[in-house]
Amino acid sequence: MQFLAETRDAGRRLDRVVQDRYPDQSRALVQDWIKAGSVLVNGGPVRASHQVRAGEAIAVEPVQRPPLSAAPEQISLAVLYEDDDLVAIDKPAGMVVHAGAGTHSGTLVNALLGRYQSLSGVGGPLRPGIVHRLDRFTSGVLLVAKNDAAHHRLAEQFAGRRVEKVYLALVHGRVRADRGRIERPIGRDPVRRTRMTAKLDSGRAAWSEYQVLRRFPDFTLLEVRIGTGRTHQIRVHLASIGHPVAGDTLYGAPARVEGTPALGRYFLHSHRIRFNRPSDGREMTLVSPLPPELEGWMEALGPGG
What is the DSSP letter of 9? Predict the structure, then answer.
């Protein structure tokens, strides 16, 4: 495609102007074209952020990405429960759930494909079986659908907020109230794009409830129940009340705590999940015990009340 930039294009980014001409393509793909030199302005390459001027000649030669799919890998998995429709994995901290953002191997999906012949295809070739996710450095129970019917039934429960998700979190500081509820919308941080924030009026509605389980001089162990599943929800909500999760430097926790070894992860664990089994509707509760590294790190803090 070759075209002259119009008055309505003036002052806009090149990637957005090109995407207007290719509405079925993602902006990320258009940016790949520009980086590859497949988009020329007045005969020469420019950046995606180039501010277009009216009358500039823009030439586009689309290049399609090769189809992406995850490859099976022989990676051991801890299975908490399994039947013909689903498997519940005890995910370790450090394992990414599916490929993306520079991670293309060693993921939970790679491990699942290495273990099972078929999984639900609802999530596409990069996310087979994945109904919900956990952050990379969050451990604990995670449900995976083996077939499309089970995936749809589980997804309906998550969307209808009929799945109870309970986490264990050790946070900095002494949380005063024994119980509490945080109800603040969560959106992308406009300054640091790798972060989410609960400090803006805009964002997606989210609520988290917590209960104090144990108190230490400088930390508090919480049981947290979430009714929504926003990106980084627990981490953002707890940081918003001045109690970041231990080890979570992205949201304000110190990198090291004097007198203790480096944690190397967040002290956030998906401890319990309650749902209705897809095959027969039976209510099930699956529990993942606190990992030894978290148990040991917490005990090193000394006796707690």
Answer: G
Is the pTM here over 0.70, yes or no? yes
186 Cβ contact partners less than 8 Å away, ≥ 6 residues apart:
196, 197, 198, 203, 204, 206, 230, 231, 232, 233, 236, 237
User: CA 135, CA 283: separation in Å to the nearest integer?
Assistant: 26
Catalytic residues: 135
Structural domain total, the chain: 3
- Give the mean pLDDT of 76-93: 97
Q: How many Cβ atoms from other residues are within 10 Å of residue 205's Cβ?
A: 11
Percent helix, strand, coil in the chain (nearest 5)? Answer: 20, 30, 50
pLDDT per residue as tens digits for the range 178-203: 999 999 999 999 888 889 999 998 89
State residue 28 phi and psi, 5-degree precision.
-60, -40
Distance CA(108)–CA(97), nearest Å, equals 5
Domain match, 20 and 138 both? no
> Residue 37 belongs to what domain range?
2-60
**Could you tell me if 79 and 125 lie in one domain?**
yes
Q: Which tens digits make up the pLDDT trace of 139-179?
A: 999 999 999 999 999 999 999 999 999 999 999 999 999 99
